[in-house]
# Entry
Amino acid sequence: MNFFMNSSFNAKNSGIEHAQLKRAFLFRKNKEAYKLVFREWNPLLHFHLNNVGIHDDEILNLFDFFQEAEDVKEKAVRPEDLDFGVSDLTYQNDDEHNRVIVFKDKLIIARVNCFGKDITDDKRVQSVELFDGFANLYRVDFYDYRGFKSMVQWYTPDNKIATETWYSVDGRPVVEDYYRLNAQGKMDKSGWKTIDRKGTVRQYDTIDGVLLEFLNANNHKYLRKTKPNIFIMDRSDLYEELLPELREPAYTVLHLHNSHAGDAQKPNTSIMNNNYEYSLTDANRYDAIISATHKQTEDVEYRFAPKAAMFTIPVGVIPDKHFDEPRVPMKDRKFGSVIATARIAPEKQLDKVIRAAGIARKTVPEVTVDLYGYIDHSNDDIAMKRINEAIKDYHMEDAVHIHSYVNNVSIVQKNAQIYGLASVMEGFNLAMMEAQSEGDVGITYDVNYGPNELVVDNENGYIVDYGDYKKMGQYMTDLFTNPDQLQKMSDEAYELSKRYSETNVWKAWKELLDDAAKKWKHKMAVWNPDIEKGLEKLD
# Structure
């Protein structure tokens, strides 16, 4: 079994989640079994994953596992379905807050909160706040979207969470954490426990103990003598210390989704990216390391000289059938259009793309910039402040349009001409790859990793020195005033996108799978399994 290891999955996700989905569909197409593994409890996990085409039997969540909720027939639980143990209740709709308040005479019994209308319109129960005879909140029941009570929070008299209990679909407590006062006098999680069907209780200091129990159980469940279990850490900070501690053999992989260096322009000397510092320091305990680009593979080998096998596997995958679709010529697109589909965050430096477009607009007044993505308001909204400053400096109030996160970006990309990128660092940049597959011409800073490999300079776009937005603006001007060159580069964008076809990316994955199979024979040959003989019940 192939395990792709992450934290959670929501309506809006980062590039790591999108990369996992592309990989999942590629593995499915090639009949290679996989599980998307998630650590966090999420009542909407199956809802969101089903919506993007992932099947329930391809989802493996820590809490689902203990709750025996991996395969649940969905049903809708509505406020009127709940039993409060009291008769003659009054139900009052609070449409403003999407909830129903339940009374016995004038005494509040409960507040029933429903999933938002962006999820469903059928008043499906999300949580139930329960009150005692003095109108004090004492418990909150949380429901999985699929229609069962999943987790209960018990409150202290001073309205703080004391205990959280997760239940199986048939109502048994299976996982519990509890809060106690820490050394600073604050309520904090101070322990976890799991309870199996036999009543065996296992206690842990942190969720890592629960996670290791979960990983060991599934590694054992899918263990085969002839085929390896492959664990790929897409978010290594959650799993990096645990995978080397698995009780039984496995093939373990560190996947680098971003620069390993804190300063991507100094990959061999700068402080390490804190997301990968432990993983790379301990990399010789894993079987393999994946980078998305050849350049990063070379840099990791040069800097760390790891014993683990190194593989270059693009995180982007373009369906083979895509290349049979009709191409959209530049003359049929919005003239002067520059786009970027990314989080509007400081590290994306979208203000620099706007400044470059502002330079081009002095010669080509039709130039516009469209940004698609959710806004990161961190650091006192610095990203938007810089964007607004760039708009003001170049008088582009009517030329820059900021749109919300969109799922079907191909429609946007088919109508654009240039894709601009000025990030501080990247791990690959799926958005640029997808834009190029729709014929967009890329102009990017020479930034590690991905953009300076996706763009082949002077063929499907231009690479400018890091920080040189003025040169980026000059290239935009040149392209918009030279339609033949713009079309030629668009044609090359289509052609060079074949580097990331399903066929080519699967070849790269096959190299890793073959390495795992080869090493598996040795792992199984030297493995000493746990004692089983002689442990049966004695007379």
Q: What stands out?
A: Residues 502-526 form the longest helix (25 residues).
